[in-house]
Input
Amino acid sequence: MRAIEIREPGGPEVLTLTTRDRPVPGAGELLVKVAAAGVNRPDCLQRQGAYPPPKGASDIPGLEIAGEVADVGAGVTRFKQGDQVCALVAGGGYAEFCTVNETNALPAPRGLTMVEAAAIPETFFTVWHNVFQRGGLRAGETFLVHGGTSGIGTTAIQLAKAFGAKVLATAGSETKCAAMRDLGADLAINYREEDFVAAVKQATDGKGADLILDMVGGEYINRNYQAAAVEGRIVQIAFLKGRMAEADFSLLMMKRLTHTGSTLRARDIAFKALIAEELHRQVWPLLSDRKVLPVMDSIFPLDQAAAAHQRMEDGDHIGKIVLDVS
Ligand SMILES: NC(=O)c1ccc[n+]([C@@H]2O[C@H](COP(=O)([O-])OP(=O)(O)OC[C@H]3O[C@@H](n4cnc5c(N)ncnc54)[C@H](OP(=O)(O)O)[C@@H]3O)[C@@H](O)[C@H]2O)c1
Output
């Protein structure tokens, strides 16, 4: 099969089209003929050598796919050959075939294209866990998301709105702020033009945000403590501006904040299966009704994976970048 491999750690140009043996589905696994594969920021980190695949995962990049079930391993009960699925995988997505445990796959949402379906798993699993399960977002609360036009951010804005939160979001340009408002953000903050802490305080009558989803880190750690409400929660999913920071921890104590975080990829299949079940029950109907949709930035053919990574690293994208593998 055709696949993209990381020739050596480096820039987008190290992504190389190659041929590999078609994987064989093990017990409980599906072999998916991949129609499309989502591109995510963690793929760029893996390509740079900073985010190695977990033990047992394919070295081929790609954390999410959509396609047709081509074969099933022993004991598979949920899907059969010919079913259209999308799935969260621990690696191996940038290829014509990919295996996945059936519990980490979901039926492709009704009415969506395969390219759209491939843009769903990584951000929806991540947002569901970090915003709703870990962050405990409830209707009526104020939610602040940084990087609001990222794959993660566009998903977080829509889901938080769909579940009744007031949404504040930050981004680095007016175009990106307009996109966040179109997605339903109640307030879009251009962090290059205004201080997000002051903007959040103003939008909440001085109270602050009940939940903050942060991928920036660095100096945002202290500023998130300032922007959070009493009993606020802050969930860390990345450190785009650095993992070392100086912070005034008295704010954590005085406001009784909870600062937590997680990474999805290294979690086991059973954990991801629980997220899949909740998504299927609570979010799949919203996708089928088109109340929530993946925001599509651009589509590249598989053999142009390097251009797709370049697009992500240039930082102008809004929403998801997807590889067309058909
Ligand atoms: N923990 C987990 O389980 C998990 C799972 C998936 C993804 N992630 C992380 O979540 C983040 C978003 O992923 P994604 O795939 O949605 O990425 P993405 O679309 O590339 O988004 C990154 C966003 O971060 C903003 N940003 C702020 N400071 C930045 C900086 N110093 N460098 C680059 N971008 C910066 C950019 O928007 P502006 O132009 O507005 O600044 C951009 O929208 C990534 O850091 C990824 O590693 C974590």
About this structure: The chain has eleven helices and 15 strands. Residues 40-42, 122, 126, 147, 149-152, 171-172, 176, 215-216, 237-238, 240-241, 262-264, 312, 315 surround NAP (CB under 6 Å). The first helix runs from residue 41 to 47.
